[in-house]
Amino acid sequence: MPQGDKSKYSDKQKRKAAHIEESYESRGVPEQEAEARAWATVNKQSGGGEKGGSASRKSETAKRADRKDSARRAAATRRGQSPNRGSARDRQQSGSTSLSAMTRAALLERAAEQGVRGRSRMRKAELIAALS
């Protein structure tokens, strides 16, 4: 069983975890693995057990965005792509994106394409300067 006390979870979260666990088990995932995956999914979608105050909860919009992003990454993985790389069209469009708007990982990838030496030890600002 996954670590942690489940008493802090709402009834809705417990029902959701049970449903997800059943789904995994029906697809042949071992019971312990299914339970671990189910609680990990509940934690990702709702931020864990019940929390006091509205400031500590994710908005429905934020949860929806997280689910959409997760689904997009899963689909990319099924297609055999790295989830962060996207399609060829996306990569072509990223050429017009300013370097400062890119993540360090994306800058490292571009630096590798251009053969920048010492890129793995560079900070984001140094990568931007090297690519400029």
UniProtKB/TrEMBL annotation:
It comes from the Bacteria. Residues 1-36, 57-72 have a biased composition (Basic and acidic residues). GO terms for biological process: DNA-templated transcription termination. Residues 1-132 are annotated as: Disordered. Coiled coil: none annotated. Residues 99-131 form the Rho termination factor-like N-terminal domain. This is Rho termination factor, N-terminal domain. It comes from Azotobacter chroococcum NCIMB 8003. The lineage of its organism: Bacteria, Pseudomonadati, Pseudomonadota, Gammaproteobacteria, Pseudomonadales.
